[in-house]
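Risk register update: the risk of archive-format incompatibility is retired. Evidence:
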Amino acid sequence: MAGNGVFVDIIEGDVFKYYSEGEWKKSASGKSVAIINPTTRKTQYKVQACTQEEVNKVMEVAKAAQKSWAKTPLWKRAELLHKAAAILKEHKAPIAECLVKEIAKPAKDAVTEVVRSGDLVSYTAEEGVRILGEGKFLVSDSFPGNERTKYCLTSKIPLGVILAIPPFNYPVNLAVSKIAPALIAGNSLVLKPPTQGAVACLHMVHCFHLAGFPKGLISCVTGKGSEIGDFLTMHPGVHCISFTGGDTGVAISKKAGMIPLQMELGGKDACIVLEDADLDLAAGSIVKGGFSYSGQRCTAVKVVLVMESVADALVEKVNAKVAKLTVGPPEEDCDITPVVSESSANFIEGLVMDAKQKNATFCQQYKREGNLIWPLLLDNVRPDMRIAWEEPFGPVLPVIRINSVEEGIHHCNASNFGLQGCVFTKDINKAILISDAMETGTVQINSAPARGPDHFPFQGIKDSGIGSQGITNSINMMTKVKTTVINLPTPSYTMGKL
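Archived output:
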């Protein structure tokens, strides 16, 4: 159970504590923030509403802890990460319980997220030892006009304090995807979890605490974004921000100052289906890609662009699969569970009503109970409908019929987003040409968009983000190059004579 057993220290009364200086603490504010269960729409948990003064203290401690952590041998950093990964997987049940109650993630998917997170931490430990254990040796006479009088040694050094801000939909996995690279690289880490998902994050942080990381190296502050959000992202003690979320990321990037940013800010991932596509494969991928976790994924299929000649057949196959999706509470492992909040459900409904007003074809009856929205496929969607461009983050999927590949690429590229896309065709040459033409960070050929495996590069262009994620890319991004140049009095050559 959440807050029990080894996790008993992280809660007092009915309010979960925040984590600073290696200890679980209550905020001096005396206030808390309620976390609403999307299924019951009642308060499920409460977390501390930290103050700006407490943030200042966290930053001060993080800076001091990082200095000594940077001197910790790489193998020792990796050893602690492996230990944290094992503890995380050992306690997957209570963490998964939090995910079910905070974000209505189906129970089996919640367990999968925690196990995947442990695997990510272990992989990062291994990858970090390899990447950071290597440097470069350069010589001066490779550049015209120089003799071999300079030896240049390069290595990767930590940035300092990393601020990690994960989203509600994968609060544990996307938190550790930032935490583990930061730590193996020698940085300290300040985590600001999303409100929905905060308690799962606090449990995850306690696994790192139990692993024995130095005090102050990892901190987790909870609270209202309006009170500590800008204060955190604009704090002079922060040397890098890794953020996954939505429009807030654009505001952060404008305010953050001259520090490295890693941003993933959503997408309107297009699925282009050609005449020669395997329609059964495409339909299965569209349903999985569009409706998994109720469509609340940055890499969900957000719009289907299908050639008119096969559109009827594809829509029929997709509808047959949609009819088999189970709808209900996450505890029962239903395919479609309540979306994260009432405001999110209202936004999705607004997109649906706009499409209805503009005569989109409803393949299913629109149905909503509270935050629970039944899966809906909208056919004959036109570019003048909001759903054609806006990201619903819910179980509603638009189908736009196209008459040429160029028309599909044009729609894809006209979006403000550019995270991922996919194309279904049996012609690999055509697939590569379309992939190259699509203005997205990743294109999947004959599969739905996906972030993983977690060591693959993951990035967006345009409003979908800055920089690239994936374990190797994150380690490199959270370090900077340091060079030392040895100047020789006379040219020297390997195996040369004195």
